[in-house]
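A brief tutorial aside. Many learners find it easier to grasp structure tokens once they have seen a single protein encoded end to end. The record that follows does exactly this for Cadherin domain-containing protein. Read the sequence first, then the structure, and try to relate runs of similar tokens to stretches of the chain.
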Amino acid sequence: MAAAQRLRDCSRRALLCFVLVATWEAASGQIRYSIPEEMQKGAFVGNVAKDLGLDLKGLSDSSVRLVSRGRTQYFALNYNSGHLQTAERIDREQICARLEKCMLNFQILLQDKMKLYGAEVEITDINDNVPSFEPGELEKKISEMTSLGSRFPLLEAQDPDLGINSLQGYQLSSSEHFSLDVQTGEDGGKYPELVLEKPLDREQEAVHNLILTAFDGGDPARSGTAQIRVTVLDANDNAPLFSQPVYTVNVMENIPKSYTVISVKATDLDEGPNKEIKYSFRKNKEKSSQIFHLNSSTGEITLVGDLDYEESPLYELEVQAHDGGDLYDRAQVVISVRDVNDNAPQIAITSFVDSIAEDSPPGTVITLLNVHDQDSGENGEVTCSIPSSLPFQLKKSFENYYSLVTDRALDREQEAAYNITVTATDHGAPPLSTSATISLQILDTNDNPPRFEQAAYTGYVRENNPRGASILSLQASDPDWGENARVTYSLLLPLLPGGEGSESPVSSSISIHSESGAVYALRSFDYEQLRELRFQVQAQDGGSPPLSTNVSVTLWILDQNDNSPEILYPASRSDGSTGVELAPRSSEPGYLVTKVVAVDADSGQNAWLSYQLLKATEPGLFRVGLQSGEIRTARSVLDKDALKQSLVVLVKDNGQPPLSASVSVTVVLADSLPQILSELSSLSASAAAAAGGGGGAEPQPGLTLYLGIAVASVSGLFFSFLLGLLALRLRRWRNSPLLESGASGNFSGVPVSQFVGIDGKCLLNFQILLQEKMKLLGVEVEISDLNDNAPSFESGEVEIKISELASPGSRFPLHEAQDPDLGINSLQDYQLSGSEHFSLHVQTKPDGAKHRVKALELVLEKPLDREEEAVHNLILTAIDGGDPARSGTAQIRITVVDANDNTPVFSQPVYTVNVMENIPKSSRVITVKATDLDEGINKEIKYSFRKNKEKTSKIFQLDARTGHITVVGDLDYEESALYEFEIQATDGGDRFDISKVEISVSDVNDNTPELAISMVVNSVPEDSPPGTVIALLNVHDQDSGENGEVTCSIPSSLPFQLKKSFENYYSLVTDRALDREQEAAYNITVTATDHGAPPLSTSATISLQILDTNDNPPRFEQAAYTGYVRENNPRGASILSLQASDPDWGENARVTYSLLLPLLPGGEGSESPVSSSISIHSESGAVYALRSFDYEQLRELRFQVQAQDGGSPPLSTNVSVTLWILDQNDNSPEILYPASRSDGSTGVELAPRSSEPGYLVTKVVAVDADSGQNAWLSYQLLKATEPGLFRVGLQSGEIRTARSVLDKDALKQSLVVLVKDNGQPPLSASVSVTVVLADSLPQILSELSSLSASAAAAAGGGGGAEPQPGLTLYLGIAVASVSGLFFSFLLGLLALRLRRWRNSQLLESGASGNFSGVPVSQFVGIDGVRAFLHSYSQEASLTAGSRKSQLHFPQPNYSNTLSSQKSCDVKDPFLLGEEIIGNKNDEQTADKVS
């Protein structure tokens, strides 16, 4: 029904619109319509075509347009019917808010006629809005102590409708506690207030739900509701209540800590902080506070200390429960303790020795112990014990004292320390025990000698070892400790035959480090002199007296290849020759010519010798036995074989590295003696020539120097080693550990803290220990009481907070004083300083003694008022009964807590102020002020608008804390000249006050003109005629009178003008011809200025683009272009770039480039060379080379380039271009003279030997195909036979003599001349010139023949070095030295044999030097000397004519593999007779050598 009624109302209003269409006003051109709000989109408004007399056929969006200032278009024109229709749904409240009349203005623009008509549509109100609350739910919090008649403001409902359709009244749902009172303001507004009619009680009803209804006066009426939730705030009007007055509980004394003994529980009917209960002990003794803990939140009493039935079987506690206010309740807790065996025995170490010597006798006292058990009876009887496996025992000495003594002998090496656990066990059920650990260190005595790791030691060292080298290391250990375990090493020198004082060879050969046991060599051993060394080493500890151990050491000397083979036959003569061997020419292959015999002083494989034919006159004629050294013929002697055959035989041992020696053997192939004698003379001459020619090995001049340095180094090292050994002997020292021991006679007693109270007596018990007599004496001291303690409070200042609403008779607990004294000396009475508001109540125990106080309370006698007196200071005094009496005081500070019993009051009922409408935002308009006599949160005032319209809230802002009213929006006198609203001040509770504020607005010219562009053309061609319309403007000023009159203007320099067309509409037109090239765009600033004082103006900028026409041809940057390109350029390379610009725009400014080909002689159709050589990029203007240019063929190129734009028709411009080809250094110089022949020679130039310096011999002539500096040539003499004889002209190329020709100058002079150009990089050519130095042709021929002979002699002579006359003397000395060395060697060999025999008799064991395991066939006996031979291989590199022979010895490959030995750098086995030296003598093996 409501929807049908609404539809009928809309129909009536639409008919009314048709009837009441405003009449046409020809003078003003204004039409008016009226429609109701909420019409659907497309609803009919008016017939514009009929009212304006427009032709329907000519209606279109290009001819007629609606123009409005707002962003939203509410209306649209139907071009088919000419009707004005709604463009969307229109809401009057949204557009006009609370305005009585809602008008929408717009203009109708006839674009073809450039004519404007004003239109105005009135929007009428309908009842389309329901009164609404914001928010829909309101929560009010009211204390249950609030007095009757209290008022509480409610939120007003909002209804955007006007008149009868707006808000009319309020209704409240029924409630016995609340009623509704509606106040009507001066502006006619309705302000609802909630009034308290009946007292509230939160405990009966905590929440009241009400419904507030707001209704309007429409037909039908509309209404809105809001839920009001009144929460009753709690007041502390209920005291806590314990569940029972007395709590009793029984516990065992051995319950664990943190165990919950009992829980007390109190309840409070209040809520929130008033309901939160805190539990505390009312009066708790210090001892009880250390045993029990009360959880203040849960009421749990837990055990935090140790319960002891013997100490206290009963505990009485008083517990107090406090709520969040000042109310409390008390209860008593009785805890009974039951006895159990809960005390373990205690062990106290009275006397203690932490270390004893391992040779201490049995019965030595270690520790004195005391055991004690706090329990009584059998629970207090204690038995002590230790583990039976320990060498100790416990002996009871006196009462509960035990002594720990040794039971048997101790050994530190078996057990260096003991952790002795003493266990004390009582006789309870179950028994309890306690253990104590005593750490005892066993001190060392020197009862163990050092022990070597091996029973005997064997070491190996190579001969020729460096002095001071480490041979082996001995290690001995001592199980003792400290100095007793410190081991030092020394050599025990063996006694040699000849007396006790003779020098032992051991002391001069080896030494031992006294601390590390390392054995060092004091000299370099020689295997040929000494092969084995035996001695003893002593290891001695640092004890007192010291103990020692000896060990035998055998040191084997290992052979090293340090002796070269010595050739015994053929023996060298004094002149260096070895004699001549004869071989018949008729001898058959295999004929024994002679035999080379050699020996090696080394042994084993180092003495295995092999023979090799190193050099021979006829390589295939002779051969040498590899093992025997026999020289035999390898083939038959031929006639062509020379009579004299020179052989060089190399003898090499098998050591590492191998050493060798060589011998020359001369063999004469002859059958008769005369022939031999004839050849011997030539042989001697040849030998002399060989000696002078340097055919042998060159001497080594530095060898003597090296040998001298080696001898000095070894001697210095040996001397330093002796000095170090002596210093080491002097530094030996020993320390004797001293054991200091003493007896302590300290006094030991029981801690003073052990007090026992019996019948009020204070007794102190302790014992006196006589350690020497092992006797204890008991002592007991009684302590009597004095009045030496004054009563004292835990806190000297007590602060109590009491609400000013607290009723008289309220009680507040106080903490009692404490007095440690007893009897009459203890606390007796309390006194309180005089106060009319408070008194003191002391509640005592039934016996009436003051020191048995049960409760101390402060009683309120008179109501409090914080505003009169906020703080009360009292003094509480506690007095004891001593003589003289002592007292203690406590300051009690009572702070009266504020209650919200005062209402805020404004300083004035009405606040008035005048402001200008142009006042800036954030400016303070006025400040309202209210005061409240309360304090704290009750005094905190918050300001708010009582009922503020939506528009007013957007303009003014009220600071809720300071009361400042500031402007946050724009004031407009034309819109509203007066603002009235109410301010409410609310304190922290529910009390408030209301005041009124009136703000008058004074009018100023504060509105600038508004400039709207109705139509604009963004661009026009530059050839547009004057008078072309650019834009249509509309100006408007919200001010009235002269302030609203507006004048428009533009800068006079622009080619435009403004013309007024209709009312406030202006048209912007062109004033003269335009040129885009001079100005491509205009920013036209239109300024609208009103006639106010001062005038205000607004500017709008119209951006206009001038469209281009093709009226400008392209223009090149230069009148002519010149380019350069180097010859040999790559094809496609960029040569130069041409640039042409066109001041036009777009296609008219797009430039393309092309070549204009020149016409060449020969006809019009001939191909131009330009097109085949270059090209141009049509867009960028870059010129590219189509081929590689050659400066020698083409040096210049001329052509034209055309630039054409993209206009219609197109315009073009031509430019001339000249391209120069630059030369590049790409041609080497060409030598014309002297010209090269077919065989590569250049001929011979003749120069007389008598020519003077500067004589012109010849001239080198050269040319270069390049040009410029690339063709500049310079000449240089690159190479010459005689560097200083000739010179070449730098620029001319002339070859001239630089000095006179000398006799030593060669006949033929070869010159190399270099010809170089000056390019970058330079190129060059060279030519060889031969110059012959001769005065005539016969001389030339003679010199040429001698030159050839000399060359032949140089080729066959092999060195041509002049003989050295002094060489014979050196050779003689060398022969004598070698002979002497050989003789000395024989004597040394004989002495060595005798020494080996002697050593074998002296030492216990020895090695045989006989080679019994080697076949006899491998020995060659010459004069009683035997040499051991063995096969091996080598490489020999011989260079003819070098006067030196280089021998390379590779690593040998042995057929037999021997086990390696871990000795000083010994990696290969050594064969000594039949034994192979190994790590163990019983594992040695022997290998046969084949």
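Self-check: The longest helix spans residues 1367-1402. If you spotted this yourself, you are ready for the next section.
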